[in-house]
């Protein structure tokens, strides 16, 4: 009954009214289950309001600071150290804090991953260029990750169960590669030759130097630094800014949000990250990471989830870590893991 | 003094420090908690919660300070003092349901105070001055889809520039900082939420002609 009332109210809405509405703003800026469910349904039932909705959406998304000031890494660490140093008694201890990670983050690039590869040719090479475009395919099975350096100096961290197709030498106009699965790109800068990644029917053009893309069920790009342009199969073009993550769902819905760097790109630095993962998700991650098959584990409660971070640990350590809080036994037999629960 | 044992375990990290690991784990743990829960953890002395708050809100806070005062070192000092105070008084701090709103409010109060103290600026009109909180219409954040390219960037920016800066500030807090009317009222020292709504409504009605389809 409440929702009927709201629907009655919104039918009289003009662009300006949508712009005033907190529930609408929340949907545009940080959609969640509640807002998404309501507004999607509402849009379906009120196609006549499409223009107003789109205009309100565009307006909300495009309001930005005219003189935005981004805090420098130096200031960020200076303030932190000053604040924390105040209550650390042993001054030698503060010196052990190494802030180089901030710079690492600034230098981080792009993770692309996609499991649904819609084949798409970015640009047909010219006849004369074709000689140079000897295509190479690198493919990683489960359990194997690799780092490749392309002819232009671009470094690609290729995840397990992923493959990258690239020319041995790039041609003169564009650097094109094709990806299935997941990869992290540190693209070498060359303004004259854009770097284009084709993945799952989407084309990603690197405008600056650094970004991060992923596709599992959805196509996801997480941009750490630089600028990235994404073109979906229907021709929509989206420009991304640093610290933004773009999620393109199969139905075509596009969501932008912030992301957790460790969760998204930790894998390339050997971090195996579980964040509120259910058993199925954990199983998938471990199988892909260690190249094993997991059996059993059918007794987990629906509500059960696990959060934990492992740095470069062997399989036993990870299973042990999870089993401590989750009450199960495990047996490792070569490439097979058998899980028995409850203990 | 000997280093704690944990450092030794992490020796093999290439280019990764304990602090980095620490910070990253923190983000994982707290991302899904509510502001009220995180604040409570901080009050109870959880260092990880403090780090999370610092990491998450410093960039926005710094930018907000910069909008009020272009002297970056003053903004820096102000943030530093705020966070030192938060740590010292943590047990006595109030319950907070929106951390960003709370920090913005303190930032405004403290920055105004230190500007007055420094006498370096004409502070009286400060954020009432017409040049504060400039807005650009950013095309990067939206889909470039000609059919729906309804917004006229230049016209909008000109109209924005004519708004009183308090109205621009409210629009930025609402759309860019994702704060609620309630938080905006709190940050801008309004007696009630209605006043914050009114400010936004007035700004939107000035822009009305540009929303015609």
TrEMBL record, chain B:
Pfam families: Sigma70_r4_2 (PF08281). CDD domains: Sigma70_r4. InterPro entries: RNA_pol_sigma-70-like (IPR039425), RNA_pol_sigma-70_dom (IPR014284), RNA_pol_sigma70_r4_t2 (IPR013249), RNA_pol_sigma_r2 (IPR013325), RNA_pol_sigma_r3/r4-like (IPR013324), WH-like_DNA-bd_sf (IPR036388). It comes from the Bacteria. Keywords: Sigma factor, Transcription, Transcription regulation. This is RNA polymerase sigma factor. Residues 154-206 form the RNA polymerase sigma factor 70 region 4 type domain. Belongs to the sigma-70 factor family. ECF subfamily.
């Amino acid at each position: 009954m409440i929702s009927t009332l709201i629907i009655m109210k919104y039918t009289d809405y003009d662009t300006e009214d949508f712009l005033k509405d907190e529930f609408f703003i929340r949907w545009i800026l940080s959609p969640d289950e509640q807002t998404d469910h309501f507004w999607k349904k509402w849009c379906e039932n009120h196609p006549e309001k499409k223009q107003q909705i789109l205009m309100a959406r565009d307006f909300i998304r495009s309001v930005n600071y005219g003189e935005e000031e981004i805090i420098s890494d130096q200031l960020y660490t200076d303030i932190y150290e000053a604040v924390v140093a105040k209550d650390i008694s042993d001054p030698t201890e503060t010196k052990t804090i190494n802030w180089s990670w901030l710079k690492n983050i600034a230098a981080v690039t792009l993770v692309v991953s996609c499991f649904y590869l819609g084949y798409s040719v970015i640009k047909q090479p010219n006849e004369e260029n074709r000689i140079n475009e000897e295509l190479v395919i690198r493919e990683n099975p489960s359990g194997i990750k690799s780092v490749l350096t392309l002819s232009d100096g671009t470094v690609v961290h290729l995840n397990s169960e992923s493959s990258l197709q690239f020319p041995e030498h790039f041609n003169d106009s564009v650097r094109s590669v094709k990806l299935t699965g997941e990869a992290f790109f540190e693209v070498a800068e060359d303004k004259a030759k854009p770097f284009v990644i084709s993945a799952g029917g989407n084309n990603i053009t690197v405008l600056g130097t650094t970004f991060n893309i992923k596709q599992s069920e959805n196509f996801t790009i997480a941009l750490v630094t630089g600028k990235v342009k994404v073109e979906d199969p229907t021709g929509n073009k989206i420009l991304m800014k640093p610290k933004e993550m773009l999620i393109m769902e199969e139905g075509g819905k596009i969501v932008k949000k912030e992301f957790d760097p460790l969760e998204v790109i930790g894998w390339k630095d050997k971090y195996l990250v579980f964040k509120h993962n259910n058993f199925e998700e954990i199983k998938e991650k471990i199988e892909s990471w260690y190249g094993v098959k997991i059996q059993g584990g059918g007794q987990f409660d629906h509500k059960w989830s696990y959060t934990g971070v492992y740095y470069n640990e062997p399989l036993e350590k990870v299973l042990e870590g999870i089993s401590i809080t989750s009450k199960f036994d495990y047996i490792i037999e070569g490439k097979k893991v058998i899980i028995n629960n409850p203990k | 003094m000997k280093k704690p044992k944990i450092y030794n375990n992490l020796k093999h990290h290439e280019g990764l420090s304990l602090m980095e690991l620490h910070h990253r784990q923190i983000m994982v743990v707290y991302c899904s908690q509510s502001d009220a829960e995180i604040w409570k953890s901080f009050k109870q002395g959880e260092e990880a919660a403090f780090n999370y708050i610092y990491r998450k809100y410093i960039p926005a806070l710094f930018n907000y300070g910069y909008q009020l005062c272009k002297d970056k070192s003053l903004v820096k000092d102000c943030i530093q003092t705020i966070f030192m105070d938060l740590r010292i008084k943590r047990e006595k701090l109030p319950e907070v349901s929106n951390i960003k709103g709370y920090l913005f409010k303190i930032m405004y109060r403290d920055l105004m105070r230190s500007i007055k103290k420094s006498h370096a600026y004409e502070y009286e009109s400060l954020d009432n001055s017409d040049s504060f909180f400039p807005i650009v219409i950013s095309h990067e954040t939206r889909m470039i889809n000609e059919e729906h390219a309804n917004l006229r960037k230049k016209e909008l920016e000109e109209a924005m520039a004519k708004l009183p800066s308090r109205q621009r500030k409210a629009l930025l807090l609402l759309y860019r900082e994702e704060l609620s009317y309630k938080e905006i009222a709190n940050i801008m020292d309004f007696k009630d939420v209605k006043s914050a709504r009114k400010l936004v409504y007035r700004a939107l009605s000035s822009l009305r002609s540009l929303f015609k389809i």
